[in-house]
Each structure stands twice: as C-alpha cells, then as structure tokens.
Amino acid sequence: PPPEGEEEGEGDGDITTRREFDPTDEALRAWKNTQEMMGGRQMKFWVEGSRALGYDKTGFLVVEVPDAQRAHTLNRSINSAVRRAFIHATGNARGDIRFVLPQGVPEKVN
C-alpha cells in the first residue's frame, strides 16, 4: 500500500526495494499464466521480458522487469489491470504484485 497520507499512484517514483523472496514453482506458474492473459499488443509490451522471482515475506509476488520505465508504469499506471489478470489466472484473491528491476539497476525513476 502507499505510505500513510499518500494516495495510490502518487509518490516520489521509488520502485519497490527488493526483499527476500521464495522462488516457488507456483509463483513462476502464476506469473506465466498472467502474462498469457494480458490482452492486446500494448498490454503485452509492458510485461514482455519480465519474470517472476517468487513471493516475498509479506506474500507479494515479486516480478523482475527489464527497465525502469516498465517498472514505473506497472507499479503506478496499469497495476490494476495486471492484478486483475493475475487474480483471474491464479484464483488468488489478493493479487498483490511488486515490480522490481534486475540487481544492480538503479531503482529510482525521475
């Protein structure tokens, strides 16, 4: 959730920091199914090149994306569409996803 006093979609552009995660087969399958469900060429572009890393300690599915623009767009702009596809693909009622950058890539978006 956004920090206290901040609405979803607002913020300084920080991409979620990495946490320890559990790379289960279920997590990998869940993201693959979600990618397959994303409709339209434009939506597929935003999840292209991404991969599930697993679930973090709080239960979020952690998905690595190739660049900061995709991480920012997925975290801020079209997260709800991806979450709906994830919920539909997996039956997971929460549908919580964090999009992160590969190790060594700055996690700040200007």
Describe the 3D structure:
The protein has helices at 25-37, 41-47, 68-76, 79-90; strands at residues 21-22, 51-56, 61-64, 97-100. The chain is an alpha+beta fold. The chain has a 4-stranded mixed sheet. Helix 1 crosses helix 4. Residues 6-18 and 106-110 have low confidence and may be disordered.
Which spans have pLDDT < 50 for at least 5 consecutive residues? Answer: 6-18, 106-110
Strand order of the largest sheet: 1-2-3-4
State the share of residues found in helices, binned by percent.
25-40%
Task: Tell me the number of strands.
Answer: 4
Mean pLDDT over the full residue set: 75
Structural class: alpha+beta
Order of helices and strands: EHHEEHHE
Report how far the terminal alpha carbons are from each other.
21 Å
What sort of overall outline do the alpha carbons produce when their principal axes are compared? globular
How many helices? The count is: 4
Radius of gyration, CA atoms, in whole angstroms:
13 Å
Biggest beta-sheet profile: 4 strands, mixed
User: β content, as a range?
Assistant: 5-15%
How do the helices and strands line up, and which of them pair or pack?
Elements: E1 21-22, H1 25-37, H2 41-47, E2 51-56, E3 61-64, H3 68-76, H4 79-90, E4 97-100
Parallel strand pairs: 3-4
Antiparallel strand pairs: 1-2, 2-3
Helix pairs in contact: 1-4
